[in-house]
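U., I forgot to send this yesterday:
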Amino acid sequence: MVNVTGEELEALLLRGWRRFGPAYFRPACSACQECVSLRVKVDAFVPSASQKKAMRRARRFRIEVGRPRVDSARLSLHAAWHATREEARGWDPTALSHEEYATQFAFPSATGREAAWYDGERLLALGLYDETPGGVSAAYFFYHPDIAGFSPGVANVLWCLEQAKTLGVPHVYLGYRVEACDSLKYKARFQPHELLKGRPSMQETPLWVEGPSLSR
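Result:
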């Protein structure tokens, strides 16, 4: 879809939809409800000790916010990050072209933003997110393997929470939590958070409930 406004995307997020490039989607498996939409309550959020440590480590980076774009630095960064996933998780090799990156990560959108992380002039991480009247939606994040020890994924979520505070919006949407998937269940560690009940239609009022407290 194109020309989707912030208000329209907000209505979709409230009902469990996500945006990736020009695509808007949510799970549709009738026999499975393991993908549960999760959002963090910005004003109530309390970071754990390890999350505080990750944020302190990330202070060394300069973060520039702007509209998503594509260039050689972003293509190289994505290739370096993806190679680590190919080795660790068995992902299929990929080398995005300029056009493929532009479509997936820099598609023109009223809501899309990027947060580019620099150490000096070197681009080391990139966070893609959407801004709506009621929240920040974290869409995608990738980083150079050189900074893996800084817990950049955790720091990215914490940065999104700070950005939400700056914008004065109440929620950060983290997408889907899947308890059986290590790469997705970590989202529940950001507390307190809320979980969406079911998959409401656009005609239904969505119900978000308090998520369980976890030992952190």
